[in-house]
Amino acid sequence: MRFSTLLIQALSLTASLASAVAIEKRQSTTQVYKFSSPTSAEGIAVRSNGQLLVSFFDKAELWTIDPATKKATKLVSFEGATCSAGIAEIAPDVFAVVAGQFSFSGGNKAGSWAIWKVDFTSGTAVASVLKKVPESGFFNGLTTFDNSTILIGDASKGAVWRMDTKTGAYSIAIQDALMNPAANAGIPMGLDGLRYSNGTVWFTNVSKNSLHKVAVDATGKATGSIATIWSNTFSDDLWVGSDGSAYVATGSAGKIQKVSPDGKVSTVASVSGSTAVVLGRTEADKNTLYIATGNGLIASVKV
Ligand SMILES: *[C@@H]1O[C@H](CO)[C@@H](O)[C@H](O)[C@H]1NC(C)=O
Ligand SMILES: *[C@@H]1O[C@H](CO)[C@@H](O)[C@H](O)[C@H]1NC(C)=O
Ligand SMILES: *[C@@H]1O[C@H](CO)[C@@H](O)[C@H](O)[C@H]1NC(C)=O
């Protein structure tokens, strides 16, 4: 494991030296924190005070990391769940988090998934179930849509759910074959990463190595056909910056890809096993991309 990581780093270094002559800006990353248990960081978000929030595929826990002191603290254990995933801010300093029952040995338990609410407004993290969804297949991606709505990616049903964050009312907003898991997928996951920004829903199909986007109306329903940005690079979760640039974690592909507003794709960092990314929110780190990985590393890179 360690050897192969070093080898990958060496190869990446070679690649970055080689591409230094090209226009591509590919950088190595800086460690913010390294988790040992839990290990599989899956979701990452930033509070307005700059503190990071991290969820885990191998444990239903939410942790916080102070990027300045590089210290991590466990905040929440999601009761009755074994896996946690997407995180999205639904009101100032109030976050929604996906949690349910999945394990690498036992697989996914359809119907076990819920959206939890973690509220920091009292000064400490207060967790409660926002809504359990018995019709859930395999929830993973999560994104804020408007003041009172989140969109949830369902990786096994190949659907995007919408949920009212005040009432918990939910329904399917988009369902498309492009969001289905591949028939031969090891883990039955299609739609994985999910991000709404400026009238567009971006999503990845983790079993098809693809990134897509589609324009949606005010209810979250697709208004046009789904565009494919690529279909040759493993793609996990993504973040869209205020300038419209998308940053995509590519897991085993070993890099962070940027899609500029003009559609140009470039590589901004080399990192192994990335699962999710988010841009900093303070003046000091608004150009810093924080990266979660499945091997416990939380890293950062200037973009
Ligand atoms: C969000 O809520 C605020 C106040 O509750 C309101 O003023 C604003 O118009 C809302 N924005 C949207 C996009 O609905
Ligand atoms: C996502 O997976 C489904 C199921 O295999 C497939 O139909 C769809 O084409 C995939 N998406 C892409 C872009 O290939
Ligand atoms: C938002 O979308 C509009 C319409 O497509 C586009 O003109 C504008 O540049 C976009 N803004 C950002 C920040 O992406």
UniProtKB/TrEMBL annotation:
Residues annotated as domain SMP-30/Gluconolactonase/LRE-like region: 51-294
Signal peptide: 1-20
UniProt key word Translocase: no
Statement: the UniProt record of this protein carries the keyword Signal: yes
Keywords assigned by UniProt, alphabetized: Signal
Lineage top rank: taxon: Eukaryota
InterPro entries named among the record's database cross-references: 6-blade_b-propeller_TolB-like (IPR011042), Hetero-Diels-Alderase-like (IPR052998), SGL (IPR013658)
A Pfam family reported for this protein in Swiss-Prot or TrEMBL: SGL
TM segment ranges: none
Protein name in UniProt: NHL repeat-containing protein
Species of provenance: Melanomma pulvis-pyrius CBS 109.77
